[in-house]
Amino acid sequence: MDALKKLQWFVFGAVLMSCLQLWLRRKQTGTDLGCSNPPPRIYDRHSSWLNVPKIWREEMERRVKHMETVCRETTHSVDGSSARTGFPPMLYVDDRHRLIMCSMPKVGCTNGKRLLYALTGNVDMKSFHNFGSGKKVVSYKRFLPRLSQYSPFGAKLRLETYLKVIVVRHPLERLVSAYRGKLEGKGHPITGEAIYIAKRFETNPTPGMLTGKEGVSFQAFIDYLNSLDPNKDYNNHWESYIRLCDPCQIHYDVIARLESQGTDLNMMLKLIGMDDKLTYPEGDLPASSSAVWKKYFTKISQSDIRKIWQHYELDARLFNFTLDWY
Ligand SMILES: *[C@@H]1O[C@H](CO)[C@@H](O)[C@H](O)[C@H]1NC(C)=O
């Protein structure tokens, strides 16, 4: 009788314990998905850099050192960061791979963003190459967090530990690309600005120009830019890197140049341990190659070019672009 009672108590105890355990486990995993499942920490500031070829690493060091030197020389004249409160608008965050990328319009931006969408896991990796049409990219915008959306502490923590990447191209090449995409020919999307430019800067505007059905001339576009106050915000498509990506505040680790973006971005994928899952297309250069964009400036006077250059001079110096071809 005594032994039976002991057994009963034992069984009762065992059942109680396992119930308690089940309840506890459920409490841990069921309710708080975010905290019990920390993101994999793939990028590491020290060890990740051992995975990339020395020659590329040294090239990045050269570019970064050059940028930092220019930043130090010009701290007083750079007002991009001091004029703005908070972080620049174009910094996108990928928490899964510890990546911060400044992806701005007209720097192979659709491709860069496509890559980020794939990395954040919001787009099927296999279809990321086909994930191309502008509209779709825009509709996915909300899945791509910006650094400015984080708390000051969260943003600072990420800036200190994540890989920071900026993609750059010659400022004047970027202008041509923006002009071609937004103001040249028919069916451009920024009608309001085009009409304004046609009215104020076109010597013989056509009816199509004045109603926004037709784009404006490159000369009118340049005159328009030269009339703007460089200390005020431009349209993002021709805003300076200083304002969009604030290089002197962010201290980028990787400066990818458009001429070498295939190599540079594939090395970036290596740094975050994703090179076996994704490949950035090597030959994927945007439409305006060197010969094409330079042709746009052949009809622009030297003094107009010098003037427009002043708006982008610091951008150019930071990333070692010159006017020497002109
Ligand atoms: C800057 O560009 C010049 C040629 O245009 C090149 O010789 C030099 O190495 C570059 N500097 C850096 C830091 O990349």
Automatic annotation (TrEMBL):
UniProt-listed Enzyme Commission number(s): 2.8.2.-
Q: What class of enzyme is it?
A: transferase
GO cellular component terms, alphabetically, are: Golgi membrane
Keyword Glycoprotein listed? The answer is yes
The record's keywords, sorted A to Z, are:
Carbohydrate metabolism, Glycoprotein, Golgi apparatus, Membrane, Signal-anchor, Transferase, Transmembrane, Transmembrane helix
Origin, by domain of life? Eukaryota
State the annotated membrane topology for this chain.
Single-pass type II membrane protein
Q: Does the keyword Repeat apply?
A: no
Q: A biological process (GO) annotation for this entry? A: carbohydrate biosynthetic process
Which Pfam families does the record match to this protein?
Answer: Sulfotransfer_2 (PF03567)
Alphabetized InterPro entries for the sequence: Carb_sulfotrans_8-10 (IPR018011), Sulfotransferase (IPR005331)
**MF annotations from Gene Ontology:** sulfotransferase activity
PROSITE patterns according to UniProt: PROKAR_LIPOPROTEIN
Q: Which residues cross the membrane?
A: 7-24
Q: What is its main location?
A: Golgi
Query: Which locations, inside or outside the cell, does it occupy?
Result: Golgi apparatus membrane
Which family would the database say this protein is a member of? Answer: Belongs to the sulfotransferase 2 family.
The entry's protein name is Carbohydrate sulfotransferase
Q: Which organism is it from?
A: Lingula anatina (Brachiopod)
Quote the gene name from the UniProt entry. LOC106156931
